[in-house]
Predict the structure.
Amino acid sequence: MPEKITLPVPLDRWFADDKRISELREILESTTLQEAIATLKEVAGPSYGTITLSDNDSRARHAWYAGYRDAFNDLHKLTKFKNKTPKQIDEWTHIHPTQ
C-alpha cells in the first residue's frame, strides 16, 4: 500500500484545472491504454456462458460489467472541458433611477 494516499478532487476543482484535463486526455489517447481497455471490456463482456448462469449470478455479473464499462466512459467524461457559464444578467440593471 502506498504511503501517501491521494484524496479525490471535487468535480468543480477538477474541471477548473485545464492542465489536469489535458494530461488525462493524453493518457487516455494512448494506443496501448485504448487496446488494454478494449481487451478488458471484451474479456469481461457477457457471453453464452455467463447468460446461462443462475438468475442471481447472471444479474450480478451484468451489473458488475455495466459498472466496469461506465468507469472507463466516466474517465473520458473527465477530459471534456466544462463550458464556463456566463454570469446571470440582472434584467433590471438597464433601468436607472431618475434624479
User: Anything to note?
Assistant: Residues 35-82 form one domain. The chain has a mean pLDDT of 79. The two ends are 71 Å apart (CA to CA). The CA atoms of residues 28 and 40 lie 15 Å apart.
